[in-house]
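Why do we care about 3D structure at all? Because function follows from shape, and shape follows, mostly, from sequence. That is the central idea of this module. The next example makes it concrete: a single protein chain, its amino acid sequence, and then its structure expressed as tokens.
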Amino acid sequence: MAGDGTADRLAGVLRDLREASGLTFGDIIRLGTGQAVKFTQASLSNWFDGTSVPSDPKVFRALLDLMDTRARKKPGYTPKNLDALEQLRRAAQAQRRPRRTAAARPEAHQALAAPAVQQAPTPQDEAKASRLLKTFPQDAAWLRSLKDIHHFPIRIEVSDAFDIAAEQFRRDIFDFVDPDLRPAHRVLVDAVNALEPELDGLFGPDRGRPYRDATRHRPRRQDQIDEVSAARTRFGEAYVALVNLLNRKGLVPLVTTPEAMCTDNRWRKKEPTVLADPVRELFSTLLGLVNDSRVPAYTLPEVVGMSASAISSVVNGLSVPRWEDVTRLLESLGVDPADVRGQWEAARAHQLQAGPEPV
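And the structure:
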């Protein structure tokens, strides 16, 4: 979100408040669950580094309350004006919208062909990023399980997969050329090195129980669980932060086709479909807005609250999507749905005129 001064200020306030509270992202997720508020690691990372702005005022207030309540217990903390922070959130959200709307960006449907201008990554950094993402694949089930501290005890295949990845990660001794990437990479290196001995210190697996678990000695058990959880949280935060930075640097592939959002072959179209111009233009605009949002493809289902296949249908399906689904997608990305309403109505009218195919 380079250039969005208000959003940057909001992210800075959130980081300061989190530092004063002493809470990790894992703590926030756990405390939020206890209050029936769902936070995700990807969303928190994006809010705290300024990539996106919280869209739900109730969720934002719950986040502030969690951190402010904990920070008030620390000496020297000056309580924040939470109402003023809500005003700052609204201003930051309003500032983002002109840059994301179809009206302000009539060339949005060309986003795939003409991405935002930025300094081209070096071949060395492209290769390094590719190796890192192959070592720690974004969509790997074992990696998702490892980052989720609620998954405990840890399945042996998850622990084994991390051991293999950590060894490969250490063998890649080359640093990034881009100086902006080096600190985040070093944080991930330290997090990997801290997590590995914590996992190695677990017990198991036992016969018929394929898990790595903490000691059963009660005085020590909870302490060990907390230490492992802290190391997992540290690793997860470092990984998400680096991947988001790679994404902003153009080193993580953008969503270039709807099929790229789906790893399940059942959702891939077997043959290309020729669409009429108004329908094709609508899909081109929607897909352009998704790419322009810079939300990583692997976090889209969490951010939008829709499955990858449902998102694929909205941005490039076989028929004009329902307006409710278009609205849900665009509002999640900070885009005003009204800016594509005209295109949607034209596409729908053309489809209805062509035949009785339901929307």
